[in-house]
Structure formats: C-alpha cells, structure tokens
Amino acid sequence: MTNALHLHILGSGSKGNCSLVESPEGLIMIDNGFSRRETLARMHALGLDESRVRALVLTHEHGDHTRGIAVWCKRFAGELYASAGTPAARRGFEELPFHEVEPGEDVQIGDVLVETFPTSHDVVNPMGMRFTASGDAIAFATDTGVLTSPALRLLADARILALECNHDVTMLRHGGYPRFLQERILSDEGHLSNAQAAEAVRTLVTTRTEQLIAMHISQENNRPSLAVRTLAEALGATLDNKIGSAATLERPGGAQPLHIRAAGQDRPLTIL
After folding, report:
1. Are the C-beta atoms of 116 and 106 separated by less than 8 Å?
2. What residues form DSSP beta bridges with 188?
3. Pairing mode, if any, of strands 211-215 and 160-164?
4. Is the per-residue pLDDT at 1 higher than 80?
5. In this structure, are residues 96 and 70 in contact, taking their beta carbons and an 8 Å threshold?
6. How far apart (Å, rounded) are the C-alpha atoms in residues 167 and 264?
C-alpha cells in the first residue's frame, strides 16, 4: 500500500524553519522562515512545485518560523492558518487573511485532517499538529519546553514522527550561551532536550511508526549524531554507521522497521 502522506523538511533550526506535508491533493506548508528565493531553491531541490502549495499553517510567531511569510504571501493565493492571537503578535501580519484557530481545534484542508494541539513556548499561543489522510499520519512538534497531555495524545502512533531534539543539556551548560539564555532554553517554555525527546518516544513510537526525525537541532548545543544516538538508545535501535547519522530498529515478523535520523538546517530532506 502506498503511503498517502510525505514530509519534506526544507530546514529546521534557529536560522530558519519550513516543512511541507504532501498528500495526493497538494502541499501544506508548516511555517516559513526563509526568503522566497531560498524556499523555492530548497523546494526545487526536492522536486517540489510551488504551485501545489494550497495552505500555510503557522506554529508560532518567532522570526525563524515567520520571516519569509510576508513575501511568500505576495504570490500565494492559498489559505493561511494560525493560532488565535498569533498574527497580531507579528508585525506586518495584521493584514494577512489568517484563519485563526485555538490549539485543540481541527482543520480540514483538502484531503488532510489537521489536528492541532498546544505546545509550551515563550510566545502568544503556540501549537503543533497531526496530519491525517487515508489512514496515514504525520505528527509534528518543535519549539516546546514540555509536551502537554494533548500533544502526547496526538503525537503518538503516527507513521512519521517529527519531534524536537534541540539541545544536549551538558553541552548547553558548558557552552558559550549566557546563563539567562540557558535558563530560557531549559525552561518549560523553552525547547525539548535530547533526553526529554528520548523519554517521550518510549511511549509515542508504536509498531506503526516507521520514521522518527529529530528536529530543530541546535548548532551550538547539540549534534545530529548525538540526537540520533540518544533516541536510538531509548528505543533499542542500532546505529547504521560509526558516526551515528542514522539508526534502525528492526522488528520481527516482517513488520516495517523504524528509521531514526536528524533533520538539518541546510540540507533539505524528504521522508516518504
């Protein structure tokens, strides 16, 4: 059976974030923190056509997720969605025709059901999402200091799970960030650590889960291989190579294995 949904990650990190969920009817963009030129270059590198983007969903108002939206919307006729209060929190967004939803509400976009849930970040009203179509599911959450109960419910049992692994606590504590910034990142309104994500995936990953993607990895306070290793250890997966760029959990009885890898800031990635 062909999977109904694919996830395309154009970039994930503090320099800019943009991903796209692909269904048979088109593409749904999650955030856009890149220039239009950069967004198109990364889309075209993955073989994606910008004319198929039918909606944009905003997780929160921070610039690394929004700085490309105003220019993108000058040539975009699709629907815009954001949590209630978020457009007003970003200068220049007041005139954009956002449909505002409360985290916890569902939105139907073509053939895709988008279930939203609250996340925990130092912004107005952040949210994560679960995308479902034809029995397939992608769960997506970044920029959250903790995982709320609704988040845990909707992140569980998805075929593709894209989950923040922002930092390694030891690297953060011994790195160059000032103390106040360390405390912000470590707070309940900051970012998930590798260890927090690893603890969560013990219950979020099921036999249905085939792809686990470490998202929003800090370039200063983490390493992709460290995030992958931490997730792999939590699930009993085996590293695919010595550098730890990916890991695999084989399953008995001919079941699909679980593949673990990391999204990059500068390397677009397609998850089928």
Report:
1. yes
2. none
3. parallel
4. no
5. yes
6. 14
